[in-house]
C-alpha cells in the first residue's frame, strides 16, 4: 500500500513504530508546504495520505487522488481537512486524539503559572537592571498562585483531563464545561466539577481552552463570554485559534477586563506580524504570552502519534475500519 506523507522523512526515521506492517508499505515523503502539484507528482496514486493538522487537504486535492481510502492527521486537529469531500468519496478521515495530551497539558499549566507570576514583566525588569524595583512591586501587589485559583476548562477530552490532573496536583479548584458531561467517575478521577459555560466564566480566575475547532465551537469565546469573565481573570488557549473571536479578546485585554492571556494557537496560521493579537502584544508586552503552536511538539507526542497513524494504516491494509475515524464513516 502506497502512503503519501506530507512531512520530511527525518521525523518518521526517528518515530516510525516497530510493526511488521510498516515494511509492507511504500512510504513516500514530501514537503508539507506544497504546492499540491508537488504532492500529486510524488504520490497522487497513494491509498493513504498523512498530513499535519495545519496542512490544508482540499476538495481539489482529494478529487485528484483516485485511489485514496484514508486521510490521517498526524496530530489532534483535523479542521483543515475537507471532511465533506472525503465523506462523499467514502474516504476515512482519522486523527490522533490524545497523542499529545501530556505535553499540551504541561504547557497549559506552565502558561497559567507564568501569567499569575507576571513572568514576562519580571524578565523584562531584571534585564533592565530593575530587580529591586520588581521585588518591591510584587510585594506591594502580591500575586495569586495556582493553589488559590479556580480554573475553568472549556473542553474535557484527553487534553482537558490531563490538564485537570496536573492542576489538581497544584491545589487548584477545577471546573469544566463540555457539550457532553463526563461520567461521575471521570470527574472524580480528575478532581473536576461541571458548570454551564457562562457560569464557568463567572466563577473562574483562569479559563483554559481544550476543544477542537468545529462549526459549533467557532468564536465560542465572544464578546458575551468575555463580558461574563471575572474582572482581572486570565485566558489560556492551547487548542485552536478559531474558538476565539479575536476582536472581542483584544477589546477585553485593552479594557482591563482580562489581566492577561497566553496563546499557542491562532486563526489563521501561520500567524503574521499584522495579526491583531500580535499587534496587541506589542501594545501590552507584559500581559500577552504568544507561543508558536508548540504544545504538541515533543518526543513523546510524536512517538505516540506515529504509533496511532500506523495502527490505523495497518487496519486499512487488512481491510478493516480504522480505529480513529472522525468523519462518521
Q: How would you characterize this protein structure?
A:
- This protein has 14 helices and twelve strands.
- The protein has helices spanning 9-15, 36-43, 59-63, 83-89, 101-116, 119-127, 131-140, 158-169, 184-190, 197-203, 223-228, 246-255, 276-283, 299-317; strands spanning 2-5, 26-29, 48-51, 70-73, 92-94, 150-154, 173-177, 192-194, 206-209, 233-237, 258-263, 288-290.
- Strand 9, helix 11 (223-228) and strand 10 form a beta-alpha-beta unit.
- The chain is elongated and about 65 Å long.
- The mean pLDDT is 96.
Task: Considering the chains and any ligands shown, give keywords for the structure.
alpha/beta, Rossmann fold, 2 domains, seven-stranded parallel sheet, five-stranded parallel sheet, 40% helix, elongated
Strand and helix map with partners:
Layout: E1 2-5, H1 9-15, E2 26-29, H2 36-43, E3 48-51, H3 59-63, E4 70-73, H4 83-89, E5 92-94, H5 101-116, H6 119-127, H7 131-140, E6 150-154, H8 158-169, E7 173-177, H9 184-190, E8 192-194, H10 197-203, E9 206-209, H11 223-228, E10 233-237, H12 246-255, E11 258-263, H13 276-283, E12 288-290, H14 299-317
Parallel strand pairs: 1-2, 1-3, 3-4, 4-5, 6-7, 6-9, 7-8, 9-10, 10-11, 11-12
Helix pairs in contact: 1-14, 5-8
Summarize, please:
By secondary structure, the chain is of the alpha/beta class.
Unreliable sequence segments: none
Task: Spell out the helices and strands N to C.
Answer: EHEHEHEHEHHHEHEHEHEHEHEHEH
CATH class wording of the largest domain: Alpha Beta
Q: What is the mean predicted local confidence, pLDDT?
A: 96
Number of domains: 2
- CATH architecture type of the largest domain: 3-Layer(aba) Sandwich
CATH superfamily of the largest domain: NAD(P)-binding Rossmann-like Domain
Overall outline:
elongated
Which bin fits the share of residues in helices? Answer: 25-40%
Task: Estimate what percentage of residues fall within beta strands.
Answer: 15-25%
Q: Looking at CATH, which topology of the largest domain would you report? A: Rossmann fold
Amino acid at each position: 500500500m502506497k502512503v503519501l506523507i506530507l512531512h520530511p522523512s527525518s521525523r518518521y526515521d526517528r518515530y516510525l513504530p516497530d510493526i511488521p506492517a510498516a515494511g509492507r508499505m511504500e512510504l513516500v515523503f514530501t514537503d508539507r508546504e506544497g504546492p499540491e502539484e508537488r504532492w500529486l507528482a510524488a504520490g497522487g496514486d497513494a491509498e493513504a495520505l498523512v498530513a499535519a493538522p495545519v496542512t490544508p487537504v482540499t476538495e481539489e486535492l482529494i478529487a485528484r487522488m483516485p485511489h485514496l481510502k484514508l486521510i490521517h492527521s498526524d496530530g489532534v486537529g483535523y479542521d483543515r481537512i475537507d471532511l465533506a469531500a472525503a465523506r462523499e468519496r467514502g474516504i476515512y478521515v482519522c486523527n490522533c486524539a490524545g497523542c499529545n495530551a501530556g505535553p499540551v497539558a504541561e504547557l497549559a499549566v506552565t502558561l497559567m503559572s507564568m501569567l499569575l507570576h507576571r513572568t514576562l514583566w519580571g524578565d523584562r525588569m531584571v534585564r533592565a537592571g530593575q530587580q529591586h524595583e520588581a521585588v518591591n512591586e510584587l510585594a506591594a501587589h502580591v500575586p495569586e498562585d495556582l493553589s488559590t485559583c479556580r480554573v475553568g476548562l472549556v473542553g474535557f477530552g484527553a487534553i482537558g483531563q490531563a490538564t485537570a490532573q496536573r492542576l489538581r496536583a497544584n491545589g487548584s479548584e477545577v471546573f469544566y464545561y463540555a457539550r457532553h458531561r463526563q461520567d461521575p467517575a471521570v470527574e472524580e478521577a480528575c478532581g473536576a466539577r461541571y458548570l454551564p459555560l457562562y457560569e464557568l466564566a463567572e466563577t473562574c480566575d483562569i479559563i483554559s481552552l481544550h476543544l477542537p475547532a468545529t462549526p459549533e465551537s467557532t468564536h465560542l469565546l465572544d464578546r458575551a463570554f468575555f463580558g461574563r469573565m471575572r474582572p482581572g481573570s486570565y485566558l489560556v488557549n492551547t487548542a485552536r485559534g478559531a474558538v476565539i473571536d479575536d476582536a472581542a479578546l483584544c477589546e477585553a485585554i485593552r479594557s482591563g477586563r482580562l489581566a492577561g492571556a497566553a496563546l499557542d494557537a491562532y486563526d489563521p496560521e501561520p500567524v503574521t506580524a499584522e495579526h491583531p493579537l500580535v499587534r496587541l502584544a506589542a501594545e501590552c508586552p507584559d500581559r500577552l504570552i504568544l507561543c508558536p503552536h508548540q504544545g504538541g511538539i515533543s518526543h513523546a507526542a510524536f512517538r505516540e502519534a506515529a504509533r496511532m497513524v500506523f495502527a490505523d494504516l495497518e487496519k486499512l491494509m487488512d481491510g478493516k475500519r480504522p480505529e480513529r475515524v472522525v468523519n462518521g464513516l
